[in-house]
Design the sequence.
């Protein structure tokens, strides 16, 4: 893939020992611990924009903002805007207008969708967000969407916070540069429980995204792992 014009995309997730990011109910129950939450804010402090899927935004009480003032100061010292852009992804345009993210308008909200979103849904989204971008006919064309974010909104570093369907689509498109994983000592099980990368997946091992471990730290019973695309090293 020609990576010119693309943001540097890094992904962050807390997972259980069996690779789950949430129970089968998909109810938000944080299990990463306080250190993991600080790590999330530290990563946000380096990003021009934070991105998540519609279900993550609907089900979790998150606003994808930079957090307390000390993290906003870090952003300013790095030459970034005090508040990061916020990007929501929904191929069909089904986003709950009462979601927490729409209650605080401290930074622009951008919605990426596809031609599957009806005109009625598009009008509703346009009333919620600062900009709605249709990228792709039946599914979101993620390379085109990310190039648009870089060109229109000057997004050089893009942090993705899931969920599994969005992560899976980004891996499949070959867009993920770096992966931050907090490995937690839990087993959730359940064939319906979301994993780090869901969706159709690949058909053969040769098609798998190849990563290399670049750092590993242990805090209490959790491991903080950082991987990068194998062809970067």
Sequence:
């Amino acid at each position: 893939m020609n990576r010119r014009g693309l943001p540097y995309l890094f992904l962050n997730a807390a997972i259980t020992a069996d690779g789950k990011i949430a129970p089968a109910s998909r109810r938000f129950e944080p299990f990463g611990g306080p250190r993991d939450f600080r790590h999330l804010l530290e990563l946000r402090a380096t990003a021009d924009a934070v991105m998540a899927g519609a279900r993550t935004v609907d089900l979790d009480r998150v606003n994808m903002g930079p957090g307390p003032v000390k993290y906003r100061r870090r952003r300013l010292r790095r030459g970034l805007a005090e508040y990061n852009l916020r990007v929501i992804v929904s191929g069909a345009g089904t986003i709950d207008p009462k979601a927490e993210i729409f209650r605080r308008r401290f930074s622009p909200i951008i919605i990426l969708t596809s031609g599957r979103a009806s005109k009625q849904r598009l009008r509703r989204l346009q009333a919620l967000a600062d900009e709605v971008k249709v990228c792709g006919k039946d599914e979101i064309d993620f390379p085109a969407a990310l190039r648009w974010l870089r060109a229109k909104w000057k997004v050089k570093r893009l942090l993705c916070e899931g969920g599994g369907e969005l992560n899976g689509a980004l891996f499949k498109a070959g867009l993920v540069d770096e992966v931050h994983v907090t490995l937690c000592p839990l087993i959730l099980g359940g064939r319906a429980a979301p994993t780090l990368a869901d969706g159709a997946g690949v058909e053969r091992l040769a098609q798998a995204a190849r990563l290399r471990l670049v750092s590993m730290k242990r805090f209490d019973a959790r491991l903080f792992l950082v991987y990068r695309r194998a062809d970067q090293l």
